[in-house]
Specification:
single chain, 71 residues, mainly alpha, 2 domains
């Protein structure tokens, strides 16, 4: 099936294969990145939409203030 699709592209076989390899590599890299995220960070990010006050304090509050100032 992939071979048939690539045969329809005249003169672009190498570009098509390189593009598929590049996209596959990017996908695999994102999966590994997501797997390696610290559990604490994932739990924090998971609860952000539900935490209206964002009571974690510290740097997060400063970042929110800077974001509000920039529009």
């Amino acid at each position: 099936m992939i071979r048939e699709a690539l045969q329809q592209v005249q003169g672009g076989e190498i570009a098509a294969i390189a593009g598929m390899i590049l996209m596959l590599g990017a996908f695999v890299a994102m999966v590994f990145w997501a797997i390696r995220l610290p559990r604490k960070h994932v739990d924090h990010m998971k609860n952000l939409p539900l935490d209206a006050n964002n009571s974690t304090g510290g740097d997060d509050e400063d970042e929110r203030d800077q974001g509000a100032n920039h529009g």
